[in-house]
Amino acid sequence: MAGASGGNAMITTVQDLARFLDALLDGRLFARPETLARMTSMIEARDETGIPHWYGFGLEAYELGGTKIVGHGGGAAGYTAMMFRIPARGATLVTAVNTSDLMTNAVEVLVPSLQVILDEP
C-alpha cells in the first residue's frame, strides 16, 4: 500500500536528512517550543536486541557503548535510512542503504560509522 500512495517515492539525500534532523533537534521547525519538548520526552521501549532504547513522538534514542544517539530510522521496499544525532560529539550521522532490512543498515553501516566518529579525538 505504501507504494501505491507514493510512500516509496521519496527523493532525498543524506545531506537533506541531516539538515532536517539538525533543524528539528535545534527547535527551528516549530513555532511552539513545547512541540519539540514533547517529541524528545521519551519512554523506555525494550526490544529484542537488548540495546537500551527509548521512544518519543517520532524520535527514538539508543545507547550504544555508553553513547546516546537521538533520531529516527525507517524505510520501505528496497531501502532504509537512519538519521541520528550524537549529542556528545555534536555530530549528525545519516545512513541510507539499498536494502529493506533496517537491521542490516544498523549493523553493517550505522554502528561501524558511529564507531569511527567515537574513535576520533
What are its keywords?
3 helices; alpha+beta; 121 residues; 6-stranded antiparallel beta sheet
In short:
With 121 residues, the protein is α+β, with helices and mostly antiparallel strands. It has helices at 14-25, 33-39, 102-119; strands at 43-44, 53-55, 60-64, 67-76, 79-86, 91-97.
Furnish the topology, listing elements before pairings.
Elements (H helix, E strand, L loop, with lengths): L13 H12 L7 H7 L3 E2 L8 E3 L4 E5 L2 E10 L2 E8 L4 E7 L4 H18 L2
Antiparallel strand pairs: 1-2, 2-3, 3-4, 4-5, 5-6
Structural commentary:
- This protein is of the alpha+beta class and 121 residues long.
- Helices cover 31% and strands 29% of the residues.
- The chain contains three helices and six strands.
- The protein has helices at 14-25, 33-39, 102-119; strands at 43-44, 53-55, 60-64, 67-76, 79-86, 91-97.
- It has a six-stranded antiparallel β-sheet with strand order 1-2-3-4-5-6, with helices on both faces.
- Strand 3 (60-64) and strand 4 form a beta hairpin.
- The mean pLDDT is 87.
